[in-house]
Specification:
43% strand, 29% helix, alpha+beta, four-stranded antiparallel sheet, 4 helices, conserved putative lor/sdh protein from methanococcus maripaludis s2 fold
């Protein structure tokens, strides 16, 4: 074969190799496309499964609640009075103001006291000089030890006079004894305040106490530290959890009821002193109840629902809430103990939706 034929053959071989390479690359892309498509569809299927946390529905014995009425009292209340007499020069607070412990409520004029303080300090300085000289004389055996004691006594007495005037000046600044709110103003700028006169009335509301009269037949069932759910009808029926802090051992002679105080956090000060309250205590007869975590209940459109996790899907069940016990609540409805109920993510799921359980809160 001549050189021209060899070149033609070589060219055909190269073209064939090129076509074969192109076909291989195309086949690779087609296979990769279908492989990635399958993976994408699988991933999308997983993404459509809503992540949820579940808890077990349980059957347990709880005591039936007993509801009693009560009245709200502030945690602390005080009539803040002046300890000395004087003319009110500043009165920077008004009724309704929120104040912090140590905040200035009023200031009295201190001009006369400051003049007295200068004189007392001068006398103290002179008494100290005389005492130092007496010590030197005593060391030189010029005066007796008894005479030295007299100079020391005069110095101590004068120091007490100075401290007394300083104490009076300090009492001219009247401050809040605790964090609270001003309820009454009892003085004003320019008024002469006598010793013991009221400056303001104030109360502390970041926590409150609900006083409940408990009949004698129930009192032995209660202990300090017991929890109570307290409802406030005036606030739209909001309920807050409190604990018993005092059980007064003296009953009312006519009603035969014992005062019991339940302390409740009130950081937002929504609960006001004097409000009507309904306290619920768990001290009735035992009842076998179906219980779930409170977070499992979803309220919507005036109804109450829970979402069960059954075979990887959501099952919506209408229920009625019953007795509350710590972080659990009784449910009344077509639900059997032992099944899983969704407690996290339940606000975002719908009936028959696919779910993925990511944790438990048993």
């Amino acid at each position: 074969m001549d050189k021209s034929g060899q070149r033609i053959l070589c060219s055909r071989n190269k073209r064939g190799s090129y076509l074969l390479l192109c076909a291989g690359i195309a086949a690779f892309h087609i296979i990769a496309f279908f492989f990635l498509s399958d993976r994408s569809l699988l991933a999308q299927g997983q993404m459509h499964k809503a992540p949820v946390v579940v808890s077990r529905v349980v059957q347990m014995d709880v005591r039936q609640p007993v509801k009693m009425v009560g009245t709200v009292f502030p945690l602390r209340e005080s009539i803040v009075a002046g300890e000395i007499e004087g003319l009110v020069m500043e009165f920077p607070v008004k009724r309704g103001d929120s104040v912090k412990k140590g905040q200035v409520l009023a200031k009295l004029r201190t001009t006369t006291l400051e003049i007295q303080l200068k004189g007392a300090k001068a006398d103290e300085h002179l008494a100290r000089i005389k005492y130092q000289r007496a010590k030197e004389l005593h060391e030189g055996k010029t005066i007796s030890h008894q005479e030295l004691d007299e100079f020391e006594t005069r110095l101590v007495a004068q120091e007490a006079v100075t401290e007394g005037v300083e104490d009076k000046i300090g009492k001219c600044v009247i401050t809040a004894p605790f964090d609270g709110r001003i309820t009454e103003e009892s003085t004003e700028v320019g008024q002469w305040l006598k010793k013991g006169d009221s400056v303001v009335s104030m109360l502390q509301l970041d926590s409150v106490k609900v006083r409940v009269s408990v009949p004698e037949k129930y009192i032995l069932n209660l202990n300090v530290g017991d929890e109570s759910e307290v409802n406030f009808p005036a606030l739209g029926g909001i309920t807050r959890t409190g604990r018993i802090v005092h059980i007064v051992p003296q009953a009312d002679k006519r009603a035969r009821a014992f005062p019991v105080y339940v302390k409740i956090d009130n950081k937002d000060e929504a609960i006001k002193s004097g409000m009507f309250a309904e306290a619920i205590f768990e001290m009735g007869s035992l009842l076998s109840a179906t219980m779930i975590l409170k977070d499992a209940i979803v309220r919507r459109g005036g109804g109450e629902f829970i979402y069960l996790a059954v075979d990887g899907k959501v099952t919506e069940v209408s229920i009625q809430a019953g007795i509350a016990h710590e972080n659990l609540i009784q449910i009344i409805g077509d639900v059997k103990p032992g099944v899983d109920v969704i407690v996290r993510g339940n606000e975002r799921v719908r009936n028959a939706q696919d779910i993925q359980v990511t944790g438990r809160m048993d």
